[in-house]
Amino acid sequence: MRKMLIAGNWKMHMTAGETEQFFREFMASLRQPPFREALGRSRLEVALFPPFTSLYVAAFALEEAPRGFSLGAQTVHWETHGAFTGEISPAMVEESGCRYCLVGHSERRHLFGETDEMTNLKVRALLATSLRPVLCVGETLAERERGETFTVVRRQLLKGLESVPAHRLGQDVVVAYEPVWAIGTGKTASDDDAQEVCHFLRSVVGDQLGAEGAESLRVLYGGSVKAENSAGLMARPDIDGALVGGASLKSDSFLAILRESLSALA
Ligand SMILES: O=C(CO)COP(=O)(O)O
Predict the structure, then answer these.
(1) What is the distance between the alpha carbons of residues 230 and 139, in angstroms, rounded to a whole number?
(2) Of all atoms in ligand 1, which is nearest to the CA of residue 243?
(3) Interface ipTM
(4) Quick one: which residues bind substrate (predicted)?
(5) Are the C-beta atoms of residues 170 and 212 closer than 8 Å to each other?
(6) 248: nearest Cα among 224, 221, 218, 212
(7) Does the pLDDT at position 42 exceed 80?
């Protein structure tokens, strides 16, 4: 059975001081029911993706975290080291206490020119370490209206995973479907639409890369996830978790999503 992953992408929010404050509230709640039991029984995994400058503070706060809680970075460079001013290597991310790293988030693709070739270099560089890539795919509104959703996400998925051995997929890779038109807009994909695309992504992996990888691969949904819509989304068979933006910035709203998502597992 695939373990549910609820991830919070903080984007360019939260100073180190704000991070410290967040974790003070958050960790206290996470040690209480129902979270303690769910994390302990390995049904739920929670991950937060703070900005680089907050990773050490977060890692320190997490020393006392229950099992099943991890950290991730929001991006990475694919080279191991070198003259790349402003960039961070996989080893640097790994050493700051991360287990995951986002790759190909739509903001990186659209605002910073991240291409499919770059996402593939990043995925492979991460897999050469202990880090697990969370490969983000998703269509723009214009692409959806032109009927190109499936073509776009298929290309982003297969290019991003090119040359990744099938046996690494289920264990070490996570895919997140984030329709660009649903990010930060308050417009969520309907449960049916999100399920349809997540199912499609799993079937592409199955057809191209092997049934075993497809069955164990975790596919998340992201785009205006909040407490009100999370239980419905998480109850769908091919949606294995959420990638939450705005609603992960406050301990209360993120905990409410965790609570609702757990109810879908019951
Ligand atoms: O981009 C997202 C997570 O990576 C989604 O952001 P919102 O939840 O704010 O729409």
Answers:
(1) 21
(2) 3
(3) 0.99
(4) 9-11, 184, 224, 245-246
(5) yes
(6) 224
(7) no
For the record, the structure tokens of 72 come out as: 């991730």
| Residue ranges with strand state E in the chain | 4-9, 44-49, 69-73, 98-103, 132-137, 174-177, 218-222, 241-244
Q: What is the pLDDT of residues 62-111, one digit of tens each?
A: 887 778 899 999 999 999 999 999 999 999 999 999 999 999 999 999 99
91-11-219 Cα angle (round to 5):
75
Q: Which domains does the chain have, with CATH numbers?
A: 4-265 (3.20.20.70)
pLDDT digits (tens, 9 = 90+) for 248-265: 999 999 999 999 998 888
Report the C-alpha gap between 137 and 198 in whole angstroms: 10
Q: Which residue puts its alpha carbon closest to atom 2 of ligand 1?
A: 245
Nearest-CA residue for ligand 1 atom 8 is 245
Cα 193 from chain centroid (whole Å): 19
Active site residues: 105, 178
